[in-house]
Amino acid sequence: MTAVRSLVYLLGQIISAILIDLIVLLTIPLSRNLRDRVISSWAKFNIWTLRVVCGLKYRVKGLENIPDQPTIIISNHQSAWETLCFQLLFPPLSFVLKRQLLWIPFFGWGLAAYSPVAIDRTKKIRALDQLIKQGKRRLEQGRWLVIYPEGTRMLPDHPGKFQIGGAMIAAKTGAPILPVAHNAGVFWPKKSFLKFPGTIDVVIGPAINTEGRKAREINAQAEKWIKNKMSELPMKKAEADSHI
After folding, report:
1. How far, rounded to the nearest angstrom, does the alpha carbon of residue 65 sit from its chain's CA centroid?
2. Whether the Cβ atoms of residue 107 and residue 21 lie closer than 8 Å to each other
3. For residue 77, what is the DSSP state?
């Protein structure tokens, strides 16, 4: 049944993505706020469908830690789920992503309309420069940044080393960093279309002050908090089931 339900969700995700991207294209001449609301409606639909069709729910701790100013969200990366849910939890976001994703028909068009920070990872020095310049511009526009410092999706029990790009933006702008830890990969595994029923845990930590601090120090603090919190969350399906 998990495979059947996952297939139903996948079909709904694809069809809804095509429809919402067509609507987004029509909103381009209009206000950015309207465009953001249209795009976030797709995320809401997906989260709702995951709950109804796949039995995949979530719970959040630490909502009181969300600042009232443009912030850099630093999070571990395990699946596509967090890119959807974060749109429901935080103000209008700009995701840091590979420029090549914008070339994907329909999906890429929707991403482009969401004012992302698109970088060319094949050129590391230039990519870091792009990240800092575009990230600073998005913060100045009042948008929040979402950065996955591991660079790619990781297995729940094998977190990756945190890259320093997000911390460098914070050091140059003074924008606070909001650390977020979750275990979405337990239920929506990497490189799998299967979505298992259960409850994903999301924990939002206290904002990290970055004024006058060095990037390496900021990055180390964010990485330590996230990985410590991850160690407290169930990182295997059996553990998650017993945790509930």
Report:
1. 17
2. yes
3. -
Q: Encode pLDDT of 1-10 as tens digits.
A: 899 999 999 9
How far apart (Å, rounded) are the C-alpha atoms in residues 52 and 9?
10
At 2, the amino acid letter reads T
pLDDT in tens, 56-96: 999 999 999 999 999 999 999 999 999 999 999 999 899 88
Residues 146, 93: contact at Cβ < 8 Å?
yes
51/192 Cα distance (integer angstroms): 18
Q: Could you identify the residue written with the tokens 């935080």?
A: 90
Cα separation, 26 vs 230, in Å, equals: 41
Read off φ and ψ for residue 200, nearest 5 degrees: -80, 135
CA distance 73 to 86: 10
The domain limits of the chain are 56-243
The CA R_g of the chain, rounded to the nearest whole Å, is 17
Q: Amino acid identity, residue 19?
A: L
In terms of pTM, does the model score above 0.85? yes
Query: Side chain identity at 129, as an amino acid letter?
Result: D
Class of domain 56-243 as given by CATH = alpha beta
> Among 6, 10, 5, 13, which residue's Cα sits nearest to residue 44?
13
